[in-house]
Design a protein that fits this description.
Blueprint (H helix, E strand, L loop, with lengths): L2 H12 L5 H11 L2 H4 L4 H5 L5 H10 L3 H13 L3 E4 L7 H4 L7 E6 L8 E5 L6 H14 L5 E4 L5 H11 L4 E4 L13 H7 L3 E5 L11 H11 L3 E4 L7 H11 L3 E4 L10 H8 L4 E2 L3 H8 L20 H13 L2 E2 H8 L3 H13 L3 E4 L3 E4 L1
Parallel strand pairs: 3-4, 3-7, 4-5, 5-6, 7-8, 8-9
Antiparallel strand pairs: 1-2, 2-6, 10-12, 11-12
Helix pairs in contact: 1-6, 8-9, 8-14, 11-12, 15-17, 16-17
């Protein structure tokens, strides 16, 4: 990362009134963060969603000292940064309109795992919930997916520990800066995660785990993954928020049923009853819906398959061959074709028996 550009990326996050959506508009227009601060005020004001007030805030911004201090913290503590318009930024989050523009991470993190499942639930998990959490992750272990959660008490920490137990990468998304850990009692678990996963956040150092930060954290948990599993949840709370966000991102949602009348299972039973989540009896149910069933490695795509394909169809097929299962949004962005054309090509390839459509507008080779 270029230190100067990082300074401006951090600075954009500090401008009053500029959130992630406006930041993306600014970067899209100006090309990169540093150029935003060099652009004329009247030009910035004409950008959709910006206006004169935000344009003036950018022009008068002077708090570069805080951004400089954060750069020093990042360098001193070997923090990894990922900016949203960079190739190695999590591609699943790129498709979330309210997603973060800058992520901070520490550990051996796979930012774009082939398969990723978020596991969320109550902080006061019952023995039933804990057993279900571990059993499901154990059954999923052969699918070699990443487990994403929030490092909180209850289901979150049990999901991380189960992932470690069964040698799966696991990433914690936290609601504070990387100069601290909440809850601090989970430090030993996090230290183990650094070898095969780690911790990420969108909050700068010095940020406390304030109440308003957790819904922001939850949207990253939901957006980073292909699907979200709710193991135990009351009728309200962070797990239900995560499930709603995941559904809004067109991600699959799963829930473990519980006893009628049990406060711990009200949320899960509601999600299943209202068909907002698929009922899960075990890891095999998730494997089946997500097409994560254990299979022998597929044979390489033969060149003879390309005989009756146009150039764009060849490009789509080649992309899926190298990347594996991908959403239509990802395919469209990565190969540089409009969504309408990508949709037509995918449909043609499906008719020709070369690809298969999966839940969540995801496609893979046959």
């Amino acid at each position: 990362m270029n230190e100067d550009e990082l300074l401006y990326q951090l600075s954009i996050m500090l401008i009053p009134g500029v959130g992630s959506r406006n930041s993306k508009q600014l970067i899209s227009h100006c090309g990169k963060a540093s150029q935003v601060f060099k652009e004329k005020t009247n030009t910035l004001a004409k950008i959709e969603g910006i206006g004169e007030n935000i344009a003036r805030s950018i022009h008068h911004f002077s708090n570069f000292k805080e951004a400089e201090d954060e750069v020093k913290f990042i360098q001193k503590n070997n923090i990894i940064t990922r900016f949203y318009n960079e190739d190695d930024f999590p591609f699943r989050l790129k498709h979330c309109s309210d997603g973060p523009i800058l992520l901070f991470g520490k550990g051996n993190i796979e930012w774009n795992p082939k398969k990723a499942l978020s596991v969320v639930g109550t902080r006061t998990a019952s023995n039933y919930g804990k057993k279900q959490c571990e059993s499901i992750i154990q059954e999923l272990a052969s699918s070699r997916l990443s487990i994403i959660s929030g490092m909180a008490y209850g289901i979150d920490i049990h999901a991380h520990r189960a992932a470690l137990k069964y040698n799966l990468p696991t990433v914690a998304v936290v609601a504070h800066g990387l100069d601290r850990l909440y809850p601090s009692v989970h430090k030993d678990t996090l230290n183990l995660m650094f070898e095969n996963g780690g911790v990420i956040t969108e909050f700068m150092s010095g940020s406390n785990p304030d109440r308003e930060n957790f819904p922001k954290r939850n949207r990253i948990i939901a957006g980073f993954s292909d699907a979200t599993l709710v193991v135990e949840s009351g009728a309200r709370g962070g797990s239900m928020i995560s499930a709603e966000i995941a559904a809004s991102y067109n991600r699959d949602v799963f829930a473990v049923p519980g006893n009628n009348g049990s406060r711990m299972s009200e949320g899960c039973n509601y999600l299943i009853h209202t068909q907002k989540a698929t009922l899960v009896r075990g890891g095999k149910d998730i494997k089946k819906v997500m097409n994560w069933m254990d299979k022998l490695p597929a044979d390489p795509v033969q060149t003879t398959l390309f005989i009756d394909l146009n150039e764009d169809e060849k490009m789509v097929l080649s992309y899926l061959h190298h990347k594996g299962a991908c959403s239509i949004d990802t395919i469209s962005i990565e190969i540089g074709l409009p969504m309408s054309k990508t949709s037509v090509h995918l449909l043609n390839l499906e008719f020709k028996g070369l690809i298969q459509s999966l839940p969540g507008k995801v496609y893979k080779l046959m």
